[in-house]
Amino acid sequence: MDAIISGGTHVIIADIASFFSNIRKSDAALKISKYSSDPKFIELFNRAIKVDLDNHEIIWRHKDAFPYGDIGVGQGVCLSPFLGNLVLSDIDKELNMGDCSCIRYVDDIIIIAPSGRAASARFRKAKKLLQDKGMEFSHEKTSITPIEVSQKFEYLGIEFNNRMIRPSQKSRNSILKRTMDVASLSLQMIKSSQSASEFNTNYSIPRTLSKISGMSRGWANHYRFCNDIETIINVDRKISNSFLSYSKKSIEIAKQKIDEGKQDLAASYLGYSGMTGVDFDPFGWDQ
What we know:
With 287 residues, the chain is α+β, with helices and mostly antiparallel strands. The chain has eight helices and seven strands, in the order E-H-H-H-E-E-H-E-E-E-E-H-H-H-H. Helix 1 runs antiparallel to helix 2, helix 5 runs antiparallel to helix 6 (205-222) and helix 5 runs parallel beside helix 7 (229-259). The model has no long low-confidence stretch (mean pLDDT 89).
């Protein structure tokens, strides 16, 4: 990959429209038959990818999630990504011949070429190959104009900007919102609880703080290959501020409950459940 990325390198980002809904099961079955001569395995494979619903007339509104017939495979089914890779394996090989590279992750494609003209030519070839499979590129998510590699572009939630690699703005906004939502929900549950027995300790202060920390760490680990560390650190600072703000507000509420004489409720906010919820059944002892 290093050899192809130079001053004149261009990229095209593309997305295959309705990918799983347009996979032909017969193409996958034909491909499998080239790799296996075991009739029992082939029969099992064909049965595994076939979708027949007895109640298809009832759930017709959701027919896209349960493709009927040869065209389309179920989304969320463990075999579906395999079928997609199987059907497009020849296309993947063909698009990576010559002076261009093509990376495909499920339905997201990036073409890397030594020039804008080469990128456009490879895109036209990809479009023709997909048409032969009954597929096409999404008009909304595909930009057919080649982009110089020195310019800003995004692929798979990663922003590439003149040799700087960072999480996309959408991803950064998402982790900030999700961590803030976790804190807000906990505060909401704390404020609305009137007794220790009704408070769900899953929203306790320690668990919430641990959850926020884990989300931040997991997000950073996902992008540990990025070289724009400062952008990731800035996100961490914002999450840290949210973390501290939540801590202050939740502890203040807990202290207020202690002042009101509701120590058990304050303790539940801090994660202590103790004997709450224990259904006592005293043993009878006749005098």
